[in-house]
Amino acid sequence: MIEIGVFDHVDRGAGALGELYENRLKLIEAYDRLGIRRYHLAEHHATPLGMAPSPSVFLAAVAQRTRRLRFGPMVYTLALHHPLRIIEEVCMLDQMSGGRFELGVGRGISPHEVGYYGVDPAKAQAIYVEALAVIRQGLGATTLNHKGEFFRFEDVPIEMAPVQRPHPPLWYGLARPEGLPWVVANAVNIICNGPPSVVRTVTDAYRRDWAAAGHSAESLPLMGMTRTVVVAESAGEALATARRAHRCWHRSFFTLWEKHGTRPMNAFYPESFDEAQQRGFGIAGTPDMVRDALQQQLAEARTNYLVCRFAFGDMTLEEGLRSVELFATEVMPELRLG
User: Fold this and answer.
1) Among 202, 208, 257, which residue's Cα sits nearest to residue 226?
2) How are beta strands 152-157 and 143-147 bridged, if at all?
3) In this structure, what DSSP letter does residue 150 have?
4) Direct distance between the N- and C-terminal alpha carbons of the chain, in angstroms, rounded to an integer
């Protein structure tokens, strides 16, 4: 059986913000109970796409409301965070959860969000690279020393350590094979958002480069593929829910980009759910329909990890719970590696 995870924007829904948080935590409790392996939380700012702009705050609640579920940001936008603060928060979350934290890192997809924080988008990549080097050093040390372009530390005491040594598993969003050299060299788990054929170019290249580096196939990191999934007793019910919720989610996704008259790179999401389903990004239907469609995509993409979006837009808690319960009991046990 393939491992299943969840990706979540915690985008704005129809209710109050406090209700959104509580309903999402109840859904996350269901993920934990039903055997979902991981929960990945996006970080976004100044946009209805991300109502959990401080991932560590929300994930602290996740740590307390779950027992088996592994979790983490996908990703910490490192150009917006001081690396010493991230070291401390990672240690806290890993300790609070008994070693269930997973560390997703990146520069962030939106130059507008970075710009609102006073960071030059042109420098975001360089800041991210240096910040990550500092974080990895700090998570495995008792004293931090670093002299770089953006950060300097001299004999800074590190009083905390994560449960998982030298650091929790690393995650990175990867859209194209060009980013694989660093990923392979550091045994980083990845998540891809593209159509199955695009994901296949990444997974094939990862397997090839992993073997060329002298590693065994059994030690291959996880290569995830994200899909929006809605399951219901009838295809009509599932599709109606998916269509309605997708319109709300899509509006939130593009709000900030449209405000600035721009479009995101590597964002393939169609405006209608019907087109999204036709292109393979979303699947709505009965358990049998969802199982067959996902298994076909897994075989085409040759991925070893499936990451589902079960809650999005204005979906109600009841709709989300019913969907994930049907998925966990009638779809998940039948899925096999691609």
Assistant:
1) 202
2) antiparallel
3) S
4) 10
**What is the DSSP annotation of 268-323?**
---SSHHHHHHTTSEEEE-HHHHHHHHHHHHHHHT-SEEEEE---TT--HHHHHHH
Contacts of 190 (CB under 8 A, 6+ apart): 171, 172, 173, 174, 183, 202, 206, 221, 222, 223, 224
CA atoms of 138 and 166, how far apart (whole Å): 10
Q: Which two tokens stand for residue 38?
A: 């991981």
String of DSSP letters for 93-107: HHHHTTS-B-EEEES
Give how far the C-alpha of residue 37 lies from the chain's centroid of Cα atoms, to the nearest Å: 13
Chain-centre distance of CA 17, in angstroms?
21
pLDDT category of residue 175 using cuts at 50, 70 and 90:
confident
Helix H segments across the chain?
17-34, 55-65, 83-96, 111-116, 124-139, 180-185, 196-212, 235-260, 273-278, 287-301, 317-326
Q: Are 76 and 88 in contact (CB under 8 A)?
A: no
282 strand-pairing partners: 228
Q: What is the pLDDT of residues 63-75, one digit of tens each?
A: 999 999 999 999 9
Amino acid code (one letter) for 152: R
Q: Taking Cα atoms as reference points, which of 208, 209, 203, 196 lies closest to residue 223?
A: 203
Q: The tokens of 88 are what?
A: 């401390």
Q: What are phi and psi of 35, to 5 degrees?
A: 95, 10
- pLDDT of 100-134, one tens digit each? 999 999 988 899 999 999 999 999 999 999 999 99
